Amino acid sequence: MKAILHSGDFPVQNRKIIIGGSKSESNRLLILKSLFLNIRIKSLSESDDTRVLEKSLKTLKGTVNIHHAGTAMRFLTAYYASMEGAEITLKGSQRMHERPIGILVEALRNLGADIEYLENEGFPPLKITGKKLTVDEVTIPADVSSQYISALMLIAPKLPNGLKIYLDGDTVSEAYIQMTLSLLRRIGVKASLNNNQITISPVEKVEEVEIAVESDWSSASYFYSLVALSENLKITLSHFSKDSLQGDSFLPEIYKVFGVQTDFNTAENSINLYKQEVILPNRVTLDLSNTPDLAQTIAVTCFGMGIACNLTGLQTLKIKETDRLSALKKELSKLGAVITIDDNSLQLERSSGILPNPSIETYEDHRMAMAFAPLAVKTDLIIEDAQVVSKSYPEFWKDLKMTGINCDLKDLSK
């Protein structure tokens, strides 16, 4: 399916959009709910990744295919390894079998887990035989993926002796580790992070609790970009709060530099976005170590506004749904961008204009599709493989239309 996008009239009246629940919160809570039955979840994400994880948690024997769901692969590897009696072959898409998981598997093996590689060493698919894991200490590199660490943290309270996790090296995406800590504490688990040491106490059962999932800040980023690129668009997004657990809730601070003002409406649990006149910088420099999922959106915003940028802390992007740095370079270059990348950074020079009518490849990556879509404010464009957004935001194209973008979805299978 292709999305053919044309800029609309963008009337000044406010557009109200309800974004679905956070995928990151939902997936963590699903693992915890499977371990502690007294947890109830409200406003669960409707993303493909969350649906796949929810379905997979009902299986303890046989083959589980998580397709493109990277979080599910990491979390389920730890979950099944700790479930006595589980006998699982865990596999995914071809790209998933190219995404490393050796760091997590080694850590779990050090805890006593029984995990075998079925094809290539260090990569899925995996054969997992669940065991009682009694070792209570493990060291894991912290500079590759926070999901490996969160996977261990989520099973820790159900281990008979709890778990101490020693983080080796500089921690990437620490905000997601803090999210996991906060959710553990919310259900009554003693959990702390001090001096690169995470300590989680064992818990037999937790008190009954209902947790409402906040809307997804990563998904909100595309509307921040849209407001930044427009002249007078106003958007209200629900349900967001200042006390968010999500690292991407730093968006309001980041987008101030682009002239996007965020007003929090506490009574209605929403945010109002609108454009303010500001002096735009020639170049923006940001360390996105804690918010790497925003890199594509910010790079596209900068390009569309004619602002240069230096983005660092992007080392995790090479092992995502695609090599996001290479994909960004290729697709932005189609539009006339001058861009250079290395293993953990991106440098974009100021653009003098946008080459017309580009066709943007998405590389089976939902964020490529959604990050480029706001450029429709500046030029007509085509987004290839548009249905890929269902991975995290199934209603994206419908919500984009509500902002005034003309969006024509063409089903190429017919």
UniProtKB/TrEMBL annotation:
Assigned keywords, A-Z: Amino-acid biosynthesis, Aromatic amino acid biosynthesis, Transferase
Molecular function in Gene Ontology: 3-phosphoshikimate 1-carboxyvinyltransferase activity
Transmembrane segments: none
Gene3D superfamilies with a match to the protein in the record: Enolpyruvate transferase domain
Alphabetical list of InterPro entries matching this protein: Enolpyruvate_Tfrase_dom, Enolpyruvate_Tfrase_sf, EPSP_synthase, EPSP_synthase_CS, RNA3'P_cycl/enolpyr_Trfase_a/b
Enolpyruvate transferase domain segment(s): 65-400
Biological or metabolic pathway of the protein: Metabolic intermediate biosynthesis; chorismate biosynthesis; chorismate from D-erythrose 4-phosphate and phosphoenolpyruvate: step 6/7
Reactions accelerated catalytically: 3-phosphoshikimate + phosphoenolpyruvate = 5-O-(1-carboxyvinyl)-3-phosphoshikimate + phosphate
A Pfam entry, by short name: EPSP_synthase
Enzyme nomenclature, EC number: 2.5.1.19
One GO term of the biological process aspect: aromatic amino acid family biosynthetic process
Family that this chain belongs to: Belongs to the EPSP synthase family.
Protein name: 3-phosphoshikimate 1-carboxyvinyltransferase
Species classification: Bacteria, Pseudomonadati, Bacteroidota, Flavobacteriia, Flavobacteriales
